[in-house]
Write a structure and sequence with these properties.
alpha+beta; four-stranded mixed sheet; 196 residues; globular
């Protein structure tokens, strides 16, 4: 945890860099994108790193974080504003996400905030795209970063990209076989146990 700042407010200008207190005392880093999502870097350590080192790392994932929750996380000391820096080159690209309506295997791919095309959930081309969702800075992001980093076992129910959301649905169906709303459709294509 960082020092609490009771007057802190979220800065959602592109390039703002945050340090995030994760699980097991790891510190992760994220930068605000032009569309106000947060791109998290494949970098973590137990001591705060300098911005230059962070910004030379690869981007691990980009998600939408509820804006009010960022301010709350800054005030509680779970996030720390490190300042504004040039936007990482990977975060300058168009962000793709997937809208997956309940009860169907048909999905819509969105590119840069606009619908692009429809496909099915098992389409190999979309497996690493994010489900359209909003994550809470304090209550969701630490677990999500553990799952994305992938070195420790994460909670089974942590979703994110399509391939992991598919696994969550399979595991939910396995754990709750007597609940009809958790059954998989007959035309479900299994994940096969591995990342697509």
């Amino acid at each position: 945890m960082f020092d609490a700042d009771p007057k802190a407010r979220a800065d959602l200008r592109a390039g703002t860099l945050y340090a995030i207190a994760g699980e097991a005392a790891w510190i992760y880093y994220g930068q605000v994108t032009p569309d106000k999502a947060i791109g998290f870097f494949r970098r973590r350590e137990h001591n705060l790193a300098g911005p230059e080192g962070v910004l030379s790392s690869n981007v691990m994932t980009t998600v939408v974080v509820a804006h009010p929750s960022i301010g709350r996380a800054l005030r509680s000391g779970r996030w720390k504003n490190l300042g504004r820096f040039p936007l990482h080159k990977e975060l300058q690209k168009i962000r793709y996400s997937v809208q997956w309506p309940v009860g169907t295997l048909n999905v819509t791919v969105w590119a840069g905030g606009k619908p692009s095309h429809d496909t099915r959930v098992e389409d190999p081309a979309i497996q690493n795209m994010e489900i359209i969702a909003v994550w809470d800075a304090e209550y969701h992001i630490p677990q999500r970063l553990t799952a994305d980093f992938g070195e420790e076992e994460a909670e089974w129910h942590i979703g994110g990209p399509i391939w992991r959301e598919r696994k969550v649905k399979e595991e939910t169906a396995r754990r709750f076989p007597d609940q009809p709303w958790h059954r998989l459709p007959q035309d479900w294509v299994p994940t096969g146990g591995d990342q697509e």
